Amino acid sequence: MDAGPQPPPTLTFHGAARTVTGSCYELELGGKRLLIDCGLVQGPRALEALNRQPFAFTPAELGGVILTHAHVDHSGLLPRLVREGFTGPIYCTSGTADLLAQMLPDAGRIQEYEAEQRNRRPDRRGEPPAVPIYTEADAQAACAQAVAIELGTPFHPIAGVEARLWNAGHILGSASVEVLAGATRLLFSGDLGPDNKSFHASPGGPVEGIDHLLCESTYGDRDREEVSPAERRRLLKDEIQSALARGGNLLIPSFALERTQELLLDIAILMNRGELPRVHVFIDSPLASRVTGVFARHARELEDLDGTEVFHHPAFHFVETPEQSIRLNDISGAIILAASGMCEAGRVRHHLVHNLPRHNSTVLFVGYQAAGTLGRHIVEGAQRVRISGREVNVRAQIRRLDCYSAHADRGELLQWVRARGRIAGTTFLTHGESGALQSLADELGDGGQGGNVRIPEIGECYELPPSSPARRLKTGRDDVRGVLASDWQTDLSEFTLSLRSELRKLESETARREAVRRMREALKDYEKQRHHPAAPHTHQGEVNKPIP
């Protein structure tokens, strides 16, 4: 008997939905299952707790994983996935496979180290022992399952599904993923790079015939001023010269992958031209050292080198041991690049402890700071922060340089979506905070080329018919919705950004100071009312009945 046509594929969102990190999407066709990404959730502790919850699927039942790139918010839960029974291939580019071999074991070591450190803290006495999400050995096992795929080469990750990788221009090895599942064609953007990105060509991808599109939205509400490589280097030079003139260190929290290598490229060019003095530049991240080695091995694939000695420059010193790192506490007048870029882990935290209280030090942020992270709190003007159980005063000069973003801005995202032609079905906007998601949705949904536009929630499942809008089969998870709704840190971050924007519109510094003074007075009044609430107002003749 004829079984009839095969039902269309379904797609379930397990991460990076109404939040930036934890990318993970499950595609199912004819009972076969495939993941696109399996990333670590980063941000506030309530959100990071999702990393320890049971997977919403059975790892052993997955036929494969396609990985867009090596950043841990896309790859960081692969070791746990393997430990819990996944034995299939992890498809990715060769650049991503080489980076995974460095990134994932490092993440496992950090997990083990931080669990050990937490267990030693006096304020945790009597609590259950902290355990790592996974270990270095788990990470090495996951790396062994990586299968390198060339860009543009079709492959079949599970029965009935053909896939192809396209350059995403985000980091070394990054890719967008085109999937033909039955008769339905999908495109997962992955993370998209901006114009004028060092090392990589602009993002590509198929230009027509897409039924359903998943597009990242990290900077969906922000248009950066277009900056050429020459202008970017001039801005960096100005920041470095200003910081060195203060007499202290310049500390740059920097992602070990890509951002560190971009900075080294520009610093090397400026030093070689005589535009910067050859001061000591310390790269205090063993991972960054190893990743730089991966870049050196892939140098033929990289743009912008033009004979510049980046990876072995005489001014650059790669710091390996903890003892060498600690000795940097006693120096001044140097440039220190340390991971992690959002200050959530790694050696940058002890450099912050020693440099934030110094009036002559400068901390320069050169990348995105997710809501709830230590980096975001510092950037937004915190006067005191807590680092590894210690209260640290912020007296250093805090600076920010936005021209090093590895993500496309709003205009570039819209340009990339429009270059894909008319989307026949649904455009899903992911990997963004609420304002960024809504800004893109407003632009793409009102007669734009995005077709039917949705902002999915974690836990939602959709049927994806060809040439028609997606149909929701399952609503989002109430527990995750509750975590996001109760995330006061994200609300505070968004309020602070809006407040700063409004303050900049005032005509003078005096007006801005007066506005801040009045807000402080209002906060004091609120505190008084909270501790000593007034009796409810009443209408005459309606005793004890509050005014509606």
How would you describe this structure in keywords?
548 residues; alpha/beta; 33% helix; disordered C terminus
Radius of gyration: 25 Å
Q: What is the typical, i.e. mean, pLDDT?
A: 89
Helix count, DSSP H or I runs of 4 or more residues = 16
Secondary-structure content class? alpha/beta
Overall 3D form: globular
For the termini, the CA-CA separation is: 68 Å
* Secondary structure: helix percent: 25-40%
The main sheet comes to: 8 strands, mixed
- Beta-strand segment tally: 22
Strand content is 15-25%
**In which order are the strands of the major sheet placed?**
6-5-4-3-2-1-21-22
Specify the oligomeric state. single chain
Low-confidence stretches: 533-548
Tell me briefly what this model is.
With 548 residues, this protein is α/β, with parallel strands linked by helices. 33% of the residues lie in helices and 18% in strands. Helix 4 runs antiparallel to helix 5 and helix 4 (94-120) runs antiparallel to helix 8.
Polypeptide structure, described:
This protein has 548 residues and is α/β, with parallel strands linked by helices. It is built from 16 helices and 22 strands. The strands form 4 sheets. An 8-stranded mixed sheet has the order 6-5-4-3-2-1-21-22. The radius of gyration is 25 Å and the shape is globular. The model is unreliable at 533-548 (pLDDT under 50).
